[in-house]
Amino acid sequence: MRRVLVVLVAALVLATMSVGLVSAAKPLPKLVLLSGDSQIARLYAQGVQEMIRKNLGIPLEIEAVDFKTRLQKMRNKDFQIVFAGWGADYDDPMTFLDMWITDGPFNDVMWSNPSYDKLIQVAKTSPDEAVRMKAMAQAEKILIGEMPIAPLYWPAWNFVEHPYVKNVVRKTVGSDFEWKWAYTEGRPGGDKDQFLRVNFGEEPPDLDPATSTDQVSFWVINATYEGLARKNPEMKILQGSGLAESWTVSKDRKVYTFKLRDAKWSDGVPVTAYDFEYGWKRAVDPRTASQYAYMMYVIKNAEKVNGMEVPDDKDPKKAEKNKAIDDALATVGVKALDAKTLRVELEAPTPFFLDLITFITYMPSPKHMVEKLGDEYASEVDKMVACGPFKVAKWQHEYKIILEKNPYYWDAKSVKLQRIEADMIKDIATPLNMFDAGELDLVGVPGTYIEQYRNKGMRTIAEATAWYLEFNCKHEVFKNAKVRKAFSLALDRQAYVDHVLKNGSLPATSLVPPTIHGKDGVSFHDVYVGDLLPKKADVKLAKQLLAEGLAELGYAMP
Amino acid sequence: MGRYILRRFGLMLAALWVIVTATFFLMHAIPGDPFLGEKVTEAIRQNMLRKYGLDKPLWEQYVIYLGNLLRGDFGTSLKMLHRSVNDMIRDGFPVSALLGLEALAYAVTLGLLLGTVAGFRHNTWLDYLAMFVALIGISVPGFIMGGLMQYVIGLKLRWLPIARWEGFRYTIMPAAALGLGTLAVMARMMRTSVLEVTSQDYIKTAKAKGLSQREIVFRHVLRNAILPIVTILGPLTAGIVTGSFVIELIFGIPGLGKYYVQSIFNRDYTLILGTTIFYAVLLVFLNFLVDVAYGIIDPRIRLMRSRE
């Protein structure tokens, strides 16, 4: 009897002590996941919410806001966890990695790691591809090791085309549609008239390559302009594939000299090296206010000039400041030595520079038109010219755009299509109905329709994009790396893409998607990085890390 | 009458000023701005804000905007940087107006007919049928009806084109979908109105006088029953001719409707203001027309005015 009493008392004491211990720890504050407010975005956020609830026992709250509000909150660092994504600007791992350096312009998570910064610096300046790859792989391992962001999935895009549609190339980076080599064979009604009918989904907001930023405009500009090179259907960049006939690279890999071929704008005026110099400097000029100016920052002095102060209309020193910008522009590392020779000097040897020259911001600007029209350039059909395989023949704003083969194009013999007709229908079901009725030749298949089209020749294309959760590294709970890792390990990425996304997306086992190439055209992820994250949730380890992390912070387990 | 119109006109201007001012300050209170983007660095964003005058103090922007507005200049869209809001409205409005008027014409005609029949054949199968149609019109949203028509009439039967805007054939389905709600409202209002009027004493008087049924219906019942309809016709017309976001979206129609939604999503300040002011002007003007028309249709109002 006495023994029972002792045990009881002991148990009571222990219980009191443990209650005391628990109450000494603060209760976990309300944790909020910031997400978009579209139906799809909410669904995707709920998928995360459910995994965190099930695997960690934490009730995550969802704050769904519209696109601009979400961006503003991210800029203001006013979030705990946010659903975010990034699409590659060029085909090099750097496009996903340099944004996480200390105080980087897109580093919303406020993460900082000196070793990481150093590795990125090495990869940005080394002329040796092998050294760069190693540095970037190591950097990615540090990033995933500390988990300021938890990669979730690499998205895929699905589309169907009628069997008579041939050779429409889908690129993973930049303007994703390439129509130069497309044609039809076996179209009901005959192939004599070579044309394609597609749906752009919306009006292209800006067809001026120096300022354009959006996907639809990129489709049109990629079809109607050409840079120094054009990627071939195998995504390779070869000499002579674009308006440059050939190029040479200096020994230190910082100076490129391009020899231009005989080419003409669609009004018959020759395309010269001056058009390239003019176009690139226009993009860099802060007075142009080009959103994609940062794509030019690899060029010598471009970043410096782009950051210069633009005078206000009422500024008393307006003339002075404008002159300073003009003078500075002359120091930017792009110069036409003569009509056929373009010399480009870079800040550092940048192996992916040849990828950049296929990017829209690197297209030439027709000096003879832009100087005359200013900001009105490319606002209407008669206010623009083309130097690519096609030209804009008709533009009914917010309704339809018709591209026609450009007879002045240097490689016109390779272009079989006479015409591309593009609608601007934003609805997702209508274009599918039109495809089924034979009124469209190629159409995207959104997630909810995938089952219907799976057996109708649907193709799935992996995108060079990553979606991830960003943790605010200054937040009272998420400043702890163990907690961040616990959240990441609680995500069942495979189940998420299989049961929530259901569109052919892949579980992201690292940040840089497998579609991004490393040295010698191999997949950077597959060869240099590998799977840094498990595809399935590791609940045991996640809970253990959570307990450790919360104990370090002085919070109670939920 | 002249003084009345002048006073109404002054009130209209005051109402518009309030709308412009409220919209201006409210829209700037929404988080974000036109140049905030996933890939826009803070430095470049500031640069763009400066270029388009959005870095100035709000009151200064307001004064500049009002000045431009007085000259009839709505400014440049901040999303479509190469297009003026005036152009966008000029291109989009005729399309929306045509579609809207077509929808309105059939909805009002059919709606009044259904309502009248239902009113006169109260509690018969005709009444039930008409009200069933009206119920569907009210409860099925336009995008469901539009999508259904596209699938059945466009894709399966191939009677009409699924989408696009190339001629009269292309207007039939969107107009039908757009007008459905209005038709239903018209039918229900007209039925109620007819029922009310037919129980009035002056109808009994007319019957007692021995007027023919035809004369009673057209001269006494319909003329009085239509009055409440005329009242809502103003705002209804303003709403329908400025376009429908959903219908334009589904049928790929280059109208004005989508701007009302997209401009807010994009924080396209100039387009938000331009479309709002355009709608407000139209609404205020149509309401004014309705008031004038009222005087013509309703003898009681005419009487009151002449006493004034």
Summarize the structure.
By secondary structure, chain A is an alpha+beta fold.
Biggest sheet of chain B, in brief? none
How many helices of chain A? The count is: 18
Strand content range of chain B: under 5%
Sheet-strand content of chain A, in percent, reads 15-25%
- Strand and helix order of chain B: HHHHHHHHHHHHHH
Could you state the CATH homologous superfamily of the domain at 85-297 in chain B? MetI-like
**Total number of β-strand segments of chain A?**
21
Shape, per Cα inertia axes of chain A: globular
Mean pLDDT of chain B: 90
Main CATH class of the domain at 85-297 in chain B: Mainly Alpha
Largest sheet of chain A: 6 strands, mixed
Cα separation of the termini of chain A: 38 Å
Radius of gyration of chain B: 24 Å
Mean pLDDT value of chain A: 93
The CATH architecture assignment of the domain at 85-297 in chain B turns out to be Orthogonal Bundle
Percent of residues in helices of chain A: 25-40%
Q: How many β-strand runs of chain B? A: 0
Rg value of chain A: 27 Å
**Which regions of chain A are unreliable across 5 or more consecutive residues at pLDDT < 50?**
none
Q: For the terminal residues of chain B, how far apart are their CA atoms? A: 10 Å
Q: Structural class of the secondary elements of chain B?
A: mainly alpha
Question: How would you summarize the topology of this molecule?
Answer:
The complex is a heterodimer of chains A (558) and B (308).
Chain A: H1 2-24, E1 31-36, H2 39-56, E2 60-65, H3 67-75, E3 81-87, H4 94-97, H5 114-125, H6 129-146, E4 149-154, E5 156-161, E6 165-166, E7 169-170, E8 177-178, E9 183-184, E10 195-199, H7 215-224, E11 244-249, E12 255-260, H8 273-284, H9 302-306, H10 318-330, E13 334-338, E14 341-345, H11 353-356, H12 367-373, E15 390-396, E16 400-405, E17 419-423, H13 429-436, E18 442-444, H14 450-453, E19 459-462, E20 465-471, H15 481-489, H16 493-501, E21 506-507, H17 524-529, H18 539-553
Parallel strand pairs in A: 1-2, 1-3, 10-17
Antiparallel strand pairs in A: 3-20, 4-20, 4-21, 5-18, 5-19, 6-9, 7-8, 11-12, 12-14, 13-14, 15-16, 16-17
Helix pairs in contact in A: 5-6, 15-18
Chain B: H1 2-29, H2 42-51, H3 58-70, H4 85-120, H5 125-139, H6 142-156, H7 168-198, H8 201-209, H9 213-225, H10 227-241, H11 245-251, H12 257-266, H13 269-297, H14 299-307
Helix pairs in contact in B: 1-13, 4-5, 4-7, 5-7, 6-7, 6-11, 7-9, 7-10, 8-9, 10-13, 11-12, 12-13, 13-14
